[in-house]
Queue: 2 jobs
Job 1
Amino acid sequence: QKEVEQNSGPLSVPEGAIASLNCTYSDRGSQSFFWYRQYSGKSPELIMFIYSNGDKEDGRFTAQLNKASQYVSLLIRDSQPSDSATYLCAVKISSGSARQLTFGSGTQLTVLP
Amino acid sequence: KAGVTQTPRYLIKTRGQQVTLSCSPISGHRSVSWYQQTPGQGLQFLFEYFSETQRNKGNFPGRFSGRQFSNSRSEMNVSTLELGDSALYLCASSELAGGFTDTQYFGPGTRLTVL
């Protein structure tokens, strides 16, 4: 079982719709969770992070965390064609003194105009 | 603040050669992490440096090594290149190292092609 799993997609949504991206993780000791966006040929850019159960909103983006169920999600409201990218979920896994970021394989999102 | 910079941006090498990649973190950031990204394996952690010390290492062979200088700039080296080393190598910096809210910011990457 992979430590961080994402549906690879592709996920297609129409412009203006809500895109929902999901991520599950295996380590119950994980403390913080990050969403990155990566355009084709570019490096990942941070969208937001969350470390408390519940919702965290930043503009059109909302991250949701449920530690009991070991999942984290990202909602993109009013999706735009410019949101078309691969979305990477990253989990900071604690193992002794090591707290490295472990990435999922990413979900490719296409927003159709 | 200027972002993370990486040099060179593109590199073509042949099998058996060695290569050195450079990363300059965001000013004030003391932690530098390196990742390898390939279409098949995704983003994989190579190693992390903080205050010139390697704090964490991923599951890569010893051909992959790195170091960090006193100004927090970091280099990674790959010796005896193999075709499978062709990848995008990403450097990420963060202010601290290991704190659970510590956030990593990525550089543009170095695209390495091994022929």
Job 2
Amino acid sequence: QVHLQQSGPGLVEPSQTLSLTCAISGDSVSSNSAAWNWIRQSPSRGLEWLGRTYYRSKWYNDYAGSMRSRVTFNPDTSKNQFSLQLSSVTPEDTAVYYCARDLSARLDYWAQGTLVTVSS
Amino acid sequence: EVLLTQSPGTLSLSPGERATLSCRASQTINSNYLAWYQQKPGQAPRLLIYSASRRATGIPDRFSGSGSGTDFTLTISRLEPEDFAVYYCQQHSGGVSTFGPGTTVDIK
């Protein structure tokens, strides 16, 4: 059974960098069949896919076009986890953030979600 | 980027009735990469259907998916009380995933 556990601050100041980590149990971040996604949800934007990182003999990233310039994904094989960094945040980045596993693009395991508020 | 639209926005039905939810893509997509999710308040989305018509592990057979090309359908044959929720479709193509805006199934 795969379990994903998110951690990170719930409050970030405008213009700062939002950082969240997703710890994996029951699978490996360097799996050759899974990919590791970040999704967020807000009332105004609905469910919004941010991107994913995955390993296929080397590391790859896919990004939502609108997020490419601000998003960084960092897999950590020593801790079996992956992280999201979103730079230059504004109040519009306030949302519930989720990490999720995908197998052939179906998101089969999700973490519990973290509400991140951007405010001073 | 493929845009997904879902209709209706809200479906008001009674337990035992049949629910038919639509998801339309802005361009033809590979049905292997079309999925449906259920979300209840305060919870993460849950995978129901993948590859347009395959039920995920543990999903009751009253849930079924169909469609191809640009038009896809999620059907709940007989609504149970626990099925009242929001349903989203999701597609993946060209290395990018997108979600539809959701259909709320509420109790009439």
